[in-house]
Amino acid sequence: MLEMLNDFLSGKLLIVLIVGLGSYFTIRSRFVQFRHFGHMFSVFKQSLRSSGGQLSSFQALMLSLAGRVGAGNIAGVGIAVTLGGPGAVFWMWVTALVGMSSSFFECSLAQLYKRADGDGLYRGGPAYYIQHGLKLRWMAMVFAVLLLVTYGFAFNGLQSFTVTHSLQNAFGFPVQYTGIGLAVLLGLVFIGGIKRIASVSDLLVPVKTLAYIGVTLYVIFTQIDLVPGMLVTIVKSAFGLEPAFAGLLGSAIVMGVKRGVFANEAGLGSAPNVAAVASVQHPVAQGVVQAFSVFLDTFVICTCTALLILLSGFYTPGFEGDGIVLTQNSLAAVVGDWGRIFVSVALSLFVFTCILYNYYLGENALQFLLGKSRAALLTYRGLVLALICWGSMQNLSTVFAFADITMTCLAFVNLVALALLIKVGLRVMRDYDEQRKAGIATPVFDARKFADLDLDRDAWPTAPQAQASSEAIDGRLATSHR
Fold first, then answer.
1. Inside any domain, residue 445
2. CA-to-CA distance for 318 and 244, rounded, in angstroms?
3. What CA–CA distance (Å, rounded) separates 35 from 43?
4. What is the reported pLDDT for 445?
5. Of the candidates 368, 431, 307, 328, which has an alpha carbon nearest to the alpha carbon of residue 147?
6. 267 with 106: CB under 8 angstroms?
7. Average pLDDT of the residues of the chain
């Protein structure tokens, strides 16, 4: 029953919602992900600046990449290619293109409706913009519960199982001791709160990402003469025009979209929770940065994994095995046995940062539901660590199937909320675009122009310097219009 329900929800309904509403957001925004593509790199450069004790835009980006860049980029791509053939990669690209607009709006709205938590930091996400944007407290609570169950508990147990068994296969480490060691390391990070989680992500995410991209690019460049032909095969297979993969057309679309969604998480409602913590001048700036992270996740990292598999010579149509084994063996076929060890170590880093990300999503949902309860927070941390130890020794396939269903429900609630708030999102986007058109390199958000919205004045204060900047911007806009 779980399998049938999961197949309908995540294999059909979610695909229609993600692609359909992503396309709708793309058209309504006048293809924002294409218009701002070059601008993404300059905003990313600006995000490196310090925020005076608050979390910077770059730290929020690294924290979101901690979740986006995970096992899905290794195992997920392997599964997509195994079941859907090379054409699945093309449909992953399509999903990412429309998903960039969904991520843009959900993260911009998370910034717009964020709340100051009284400790100099911010909280936000879909639960917050549902409550304060749509005035639907019950719907916001449903989202928060689904987020807590899916990411805070279920996915953390699954990630623990994945990494401990990968290390056992590569090095022979007993899973029970690996699970305990993992729980201890994570506990040391958890007790430092969001700042320590962000600091660790700052360190590990660039290291794991660059190391993985570097090794896969080495494999690709050693066979660069085969890359153009493989790219043609990917496109032709996506439309059933490649004879060897013609029978996989339906699977290519389904697996490409499904694995693409789960790899980059655009539209699922998870990334906005970490996008909201950043201190930025304008909500849209974080939306642009997070759209860039979808591009990086799918077009760079997932594509590197796909080309690694397809160029290795190990993969053949009808391959039977899991995604991790396929990726490990593909790398080993080119560089030798150390390739299997490298994939295992890379997966361990990916999973470690993913658990940090999942933990914070659950903590954010918990605070939304119960407020700043120290007892509730400590209980939550204890349960997560216990689940990590237990999950390291258990096959949680049934739990994962249940989590897939709750995550699809999570995405459904979030996408409906985005559709209902699209006018607000477009309004904030136009404010940003008008300032850039007037020649303002770093647009500034003026909360007075949005006095009709339920915004937190502590999160978006109209300080004297902000008011002066706003007046200067108004002058430039008036000159521009004339």
1. no
2. 10
3. 14
4. 94
5. 368
6. yes
7. 83
**pTM for this entry:** 0.87
How far is CA 412 from each of CA 14, 268, 349, 359, rounded to the nearest angstrom?
Answer: 7, 8, 30, 22
Q: Is 307 within a domain?
A: yes
Burial level of 405, CB count in 10 A (0-12/13-18/19+)?
middle
Condensed to tens digits (0 to 9), the pLDDT of residues 338-381 reads 877 887 788 788 888 888 888 889 989 999 999 888 899 899 98
Which phi and psi angles does 266 have, rounded to 5°? -65, 125
Torsion over CA of 77, 11, 348 and 364, rounded to 10 degrees?
A: 130
Parent domain of 188 = 2-421
In a domain, residue 237? The reply is: yes
How many separate helices (H) and strands (E) can be counted in the chain? 24, 2
Question: Burial, 140: exposed, middle or buried (Cβ in 10 Å; 0-12, 13-18, 19+)?
Answer: buried
Range 176-189 burial, b when 16+ CB lie within 10 A, else e: eebbbebbeebeeb
Give tens-digit pLDDT for 209-267. 888 888 888 888 888 888 999 899 899 888 877 766 666 667 778 778 877 777 778 88
Strongest mean pLDDT among 35-44, 306-315, 410-419 = 410-419
Residue pointed to by tokens 């010579």: 313
Report d(CA 303, CA 287) in Å as an integer: 23
Q: From the CB of residue 26, how many other CB atoms can be counted at a distance below 10 Å?
A: 20
- HSE on the CB side for 1, CA within 13 Å? 0
10 Å CB burial of residue 69 (0-12, 13-18, 19+) is buried
Beta bridge partners of 51: 54
Residue 107 lies in a domain: yes
- CATH label of the domain that carries residue 310: 1.20.1740
Cα–Cα dist 265/246, whole Å: 29
As beta bridge partners, residue 122 has 116
Contact 226, 31 (CB under 8 A): no
Provide the 3-class DSSP secondary structure of residue 1: coil
Binned at pLDDT 50, 70 and 90, residue 464 comes out as very low
